[in-house]
Amino acid sequence: MQLVAPAEITSCRILAIDDEEANVLLLRSVLEREGYTDIHCLTDPKLAMRAYVDLQPDIVLLDLMMPEIDGFELLEAFSRHDRAEEFRPILVLTADTTLQARRRALSLGAKDFVAKPFDVIEVGLRIANLLETRILYRRLQAG
Amino acid sequence: MRFWADRPLAIKGLVFIAIPLAILFGALASLYLASTAEERAEADVRRAFAIQRDTYQVHALLSQAAAGVRGYALTGQDRFLEPFSVAERELPPTMERLDDAIEDPGVRQEFVVLEQLVDAKRKGLGDIVRVSRGGADLASSRQALEQELNANRDLLERLGSQVDVIQRKEAVLLDQRRERVDDVRSRFLALTGISALLGLLGSVAAVYLFSTGIVRRVRVLEGNAERLAQGEELDDLPEEADEIGRLAQRLGRASALLRAREKELSESEERFRLVVDRVSDYGIFALDTDGNVATWNLGAERIKGWRAIEILGRHFSSFYPPETREFLPQRMIERAIRDGSAEDEGWRVRRDGTRFWANVVITALRDGEGTLRGFAKVTRDMSERRRTEEELRSAREEAIAASRAKTAFLSRTSHELRTPMNAILGFGQLLEIDEEHLATQHRSAVTQIMKAGRHLLSLINDLLDISSIEAGANELVIEPIGLRELLTEAHAIGLPLVEQAGLSFTLDLPEHEVTVLADKRRALQVALNLIGNSAKYNRTGKSVRLSGRIEGSIAIIEVEDDGPGIEPANVPRLFTAFDRLGEQGRSATEGTGLGLALSKSLVESMSGEIGYQPLTASGVQGGARFWFSLPVLPSAAEHEADDASKKIQGS
Known about the structure:
Chain A has helices at about 5-10, 20-35, 50-55, 70-80, 100-105, 120-140; strands spanning about 15, 40, 60, 90-95, 110-115. Chain A is α/β, with parallel strands linked by helices. Chain A has a single domain (about 5-140), classed as Response regulator (Rossmann fold). In chain B, helix 13 (about 485-500) runs parallel beside helix 14 (about 520-535). The radius of gyration of chain B is 77 Å and the shape is rod-shaped.
């Protein structure tokens, strides 16, 4: 039984933030291959907040270790900006697999955590799951 | 002298009184005797005079009577008879007196003659008187009378000469008696002199005895009492048996006792003082009730820099820095008086003005009645400890900072190494997924890229694991785990790997469940690494066996195989990183060369050990046995006795 149609998920707006060009490209390739159409990628974290506010993405794919503004700061900024009742999932994708990093990211509001290098299929599934949850949540709110 | 000194005081007193008394009585007695002797001599003299007078009286009475009688005879007149009657009346008592008085035998002889002469004379005179009265034949009687008268006259003459003889003899006696009186008198005088002299000598003797027996010794005793009071040694006193002697002995014993106690006391005091004086780590000193320094020790001098002569008598607020000097000393004193003691830790100043961190305890000193006598102050220089504490703190902070830096470095390195791997493996995976679009040679290229990429990733993972364990940044979650559960899980995960290699996989569980303390994920990682090694390198044998057993307070997990085992020469290097024991050439064996080194680090971080033993079958090397240990949770150790194994067939 499918609660949410696949097209509804792939039409969601995705914001990917990673300072590494290759990783951003990889994410785009993975997402495009899954059928996503509204994909926005950033390699400069300084622009991230602006993009977040302007684009109002359905999900954010966020790297943690970036120059100047790191992922933790962005996590805090995002949660400050969002209203409490908003469910806007953030998936952290990071090469820092230490326990501290995982704990910190999840406590700052990240909804999921995937270590790099990641399995492309797994990442696709997790993104889809998070988006499905968001859609169901919005339906409930719209009620 | 000793005999005298030994007599009791009562006897001595008696003697002191008896001597002069005896002398006095002696003198009185001699005086009495002398005076009676003198009296007797004087009576003798008086008697001699009386005898002379009486003899003369006898002669005189008879002469007058004779003259009267002659006159009567011649005249016949009665008046001439008067002297004769006087003589008749007076003579008998006079003669009686003479008879009584005369004692001298010579004189008495003469007196007897005199008595006869007197009697004859009186008879003659009486005869004449009678004749004269008759008057008858006057003529004839005249003649007879004449005759009678003449005879009487002769008699009187003889009487007179007899009286003279007595008188002379008495005179001689009188002279003798006078001499005796004189003699007695002079002897009496001499006796008096001697008595006086004896009295004097007796007094001197009594005084001497009194002095030697009592006064001198009492004086010595007094001196000793004075010495006793001053705690000096006593003069020796001979041990006489009288009261003073006994008193002296008791005093001596008391002194000895007192001195022994004093010595003991002063020795203990001295010891205590020495101990306190020589304590150099603590400043220990006393304050008087006003807070002025009263004693000082080596430690105080060392800590505060003041010498005793400089600080004694000064107020202890000198030890406080200016900012607390005004109130803190007073407050400490008040607290010590109120609570018995007061403790404080803070800055104090030395003599040269430098500061040190001190711990100070002030204790109020009270006597038996509870009156405040002063304060004891113990000061400890805590600078060293404070410095050590600060050093420890900074060392700890440095260590924490270093640990943080290491952790930061590791997560940075992890990021830096994994990030490119992400792109490589991610794109590689995408190519793999869509490989039907690739040319055949490209497919195999993608396969090779992925293989090398995964190898590199496991290398990076192992390396980061080792580094993080060594940096202490590894996040171990030590918890109680069932040994059987752990072994079963390791067997299940390892089974496909072993089966892939064409081997059988046996599991031997301990009969009872035992709880070990370990990080489950890491313990599994170690077990799987050993299982993987056995599966990889056992190319000649048929099986791999996993088992667990208990040895005292540790659990031992063993992985055995029936492969070729390890070359003895290589055993020492087994657990060294990047040492694959010459296996690099074998393309069929995959591995990072870090597996055993990582396992060793992991096991050791869980307080266990890891090791290898070759297995021998009938003297020939027949396989490898790797083992590692984990601590058993103490309460579970009782199952040790039932450590029988239970075989479970793997597939």
